[in-house]
């Protein structure tokens, strides 16, 4: 099903720039402060392509996309970026510590050291209807328009599509471990302390083995839905312009990083919801209205010492109960953490008639469809536009928003297991936005796939 092939990547020339000065987080994770730091790190930092930095030599007709294209061309001509001499698949390992150790965000394995092992290749871009590549999130028009314009001008994939496959036999993983016995050709520690390592695999027999192992796979997009749909749109544009069909044309493929769901190292973090601006909000009324569907418990505290004790008990119960039934934590600044647990007799068929049984058992789906929409009046459109709703990775930041008065309440969630994400995606379903936070992110600029 999945067609995965090696490619001749463009990579930064270590004689011209240190890798840590050149790579960035994915484009949609770059804050204005991060953008300025990247600009200051090096004139060759990838931010100049991802965001199209203005330059003194620009003409009045230049824009972020024309600047990005000319910058990339100049770097290649000057030898800042070098193309590998032979096609390769690139083993890509990430060594990291799970965020949240010692903080309210540590719902699962906070502080655990893990290594995530995958590989970078180019994969054939497929329509969703082909049943080869599956999404689990909806996309928005704005980011796709931006990335499509950048791809049109640069004809280069700078960021990586984060893809999942399932292989209990771990056929590819053994090959990746073998490649990692050598010294990496690239190694960098990012701003979150994650160590990224890269090894090219060029042996023809090994490459053929990887291709055969992936041929029967269905791929789930973990991260990069907007970039994948951008690649689809660009492929369709190129097909429309072509005099004849060429299924092996460069635009038929996109750069992907693939990870096996049947190995250790995959981490999904919860993304908590912060609620503000709900008219006539009363937490007591809110609890009473939820009473027929959720039972709830309060973990009260009167001082800092009691707060820490209540938090530890609340956090443990949130995780433990979440393993067997939908469980949502709520904090409204009333001197207690609250745990809302779905009642065993709740009639979800009647409450959520258009939602599949698999999704009805997910905390985040019940939160959005029942609590946000039905009881707080926060519509799906408001969620999309992020009205009344903000997101926090760390629970302590969500709690602080309530305690500072910037929010009325926050909703604290468990992470969705990776197997459940794959199950829902392969069933052709999508989750509410920001249901998953795969950690760590894949660095942009380790390898570039140029459509030539």
Features:
452 residues; alpha+beta; nine-stranded mixed β-sheet; six-stranded antiparallel β-sheet; 15 helices; globular
Please explain how this structure is put together.
The structure is a single chain. The protein is globular, with a radius of gyration of 23 Å. Strands 1, 4, 5, 6, 8, 9, 10, 11 and 12 form a nine-stranded mixed beta sheet that branches. The chain has a six-stranded antiparallel beta sheet with strand order 15-17-16-19-14-18. Strand 9 (186-189) and strand 10 form a beta hairpin. The chain has 452 residues and is an alpha+beta fold. 33% of the residues lie in helices and 22% in strands. The protein folds into two domains: 4-268 and 439-450, no CATH class; 271-414, no CATH class. The protein has helices at residues 32-41, 47-50, 64-77, 141-154, 171-179, 204-214, 225-241, 283-290, 304-322, 348-351, 357-360, 363-375, 380-384, 395-403, 418-426, and strands at residues 4-5, 10-12, 81-83, 89-97, 113-124, 133-134, 156-157, 161-165, 186-189, 195-201, 219-223, 253-260, 267-269, 272-275, 294-300, 327-331, 336-342, 389-392, 409-412, 437-439, 449-450. The chain starts with a strand and ends with a strand. The model is unreliable at 101-109 (pLDDT under 50).
